[in-house]
Write a structure and sequence with these properties.
2 domains; alpha+beta; four-stranded antiparallel sheet; about 400 residues; about 20% strand
Length: about 400
């Protein structure tokens, strides 16, 4: 009998009959999952997302014009005889609408001799990419599900590499993820507390405040000769544009990594699925400014009109910021691992997770290059208890 390949995996499950909550459990050895070497086992991309605002009216008009005339039944051209629909081919890919269609995958003798993973190599139920938000919701990750749905329902947009970038206004969301939600997670809260207790008072933070606020005051003085004194409202000065506020007044940050978002058992949480690697930032909110004008008289040169200011920051903004992007770093072998999904949830392959964490610390490790290279973590898997 050909050798069967098993890959260990983690799944959110009850540890015992009496367990009160689910934790991430390891299934390995004979309980491991099996890669499906089946060309029909693929993620579908057939379903279209809802139309964007502004496209709905145009599509409605188009459909109205394209309405076919009523017919009694399909007929062949020129004969008037009804056409019978042929049964679906057993070798055709599973339709996105035929959710219960499971087809056996035939394996040749040559494949068996090559020790391919051939045992019950089925085609899993159809899984369209747009099924992902509902699957995330079933895992209990409600915030992550909302973000995913918003992402899938938004227009196409590409972020240029290697540049400081402001997002279009419709790509900025300030409602789905609240700061209270982020603070529910102990390690993220610890990062916040470190930021406000020491990070904002460090030499580097003070230097950045001097540079950024000084640049704003110098610009005012250069434009109209006004030495600004009074209360500074950074958001009002930014025209209520939070991206401009971030660019002009953010002065300190704390990085939150994937590891910081995991629960006590090192399992994924809603914060992991929502933001994963993100930053908690501090920006100037309000400050008192006192400026004085004076002339400087350099030797042998004309007097220079100058301004000197003192700034006291009285209030700051603290916020979580993330780009919510899924692009891999250019030139890197390692790819971001997001798990093996179906309509009911996700399982995680440890080696793929390990290479993803290593990538966060500068190690460029190709996931799937370990002892399971022959299977490939890019394949769908079956946990052999019915699809998970």
């Amino acid at each position: 009998m050909p050798e069967q390949i098993r890959i260990p995996y983690y799944r959110l499950d009850l540890a015992s009959f009496y367990a009160l909550r689910k934790t991430w459990q390891l299934f390995d050895k004979t309980a491991g999952c099996k890669p499906l070497n089946n060309p029909q086992a693929t993620i579908l991309m057939e379903r279209k997302p809802p139309p964007l605002p502004g496209e709905k009216a145009a599509q409605a008009n188009k459909l109205e014009k394209a309405k076919p005339e009523p017919q009694t039944g399909p007929k062949s051209a020129g004969t008037g005889t009804a056409i019978k629909k042929a049964p679906p081919s057993p070798t055709a890919p599973v339709s996105a609408t035929n959710e219960k269609a499971w087809h056996p995958f035939k394996v040749s003798n040559d494949q068996a001799k090559a020790k391919q993973p051939v045992e019950e190599c089925r085609t899993p139920p159809p899984f369209d990419m747009l099924d992902l938000p509902d699957a995330i919701d079933k895992m209990g990750f409600t915030i992550a599900a909302k973000l995913a749905k918003r992402w899938f329902n938004s227009r196409k947009h590409e972020i240029p590499n290697g540049t400081t970038y402001d997002y279009p206004a419709d790509m900025v969301d300030t409602k789905i993820v609240s700061f209270d939600f982020v603070m529910k997670y102990p390690k993220a809260r610890a990062k916040y507390e470190n930021l406000i207790s020491s990070g904002i008072y460090g030499d580097r933070a003070i230097k950045v405040i001097r540079e950024k606020v000084g640049r704003m005051l110098a610009s005012k003085f250069a434009e109209n000769g006004i030495a600004y004194s009074g209360e500074l409202d950074a958001l009002a000065h930014s025209g209520l544009d939070i991206q401009k506020l971030h660019n002009d007044f953010q002065f300190q940050r704390e990085a939150v990594s994937n590891l910081d978002t995991l629960d006590w058992s090192f399992g994924l949480t809603d914060l992991t699925a929502s933001l994963a690697n993100f930053a908690i930032c501090a920006a100037v909110a309000e400050a008192r400014v006192h400026s004085e004008k004076y002339y400087n008289y350099p030797k042998g040169a004309a007097p220079v009109y100058c301004c000197q200011s003192q700034v006291e920051v009285t209030h700051i903004y603290v916020y979580a910021r993330d780009s919510y992007s899924f692009s891999d770093k250019p030139g890197k072998k390692a790819s971001q691992y997001l798990g093996h999904w179906n309509r009911n949830g996700v399982i995680l392959v440890p080696a793929a997770l390990a290479s993803d964490f290593a990538a966060n610390y500068g190690k460029d490790v190709q996931w799937g290059s370990g002892p399971y290279t022959q299977d490939g973590f890019d394949k769908p898997v079956d946990i052999l208890k019915g699809m998970f």
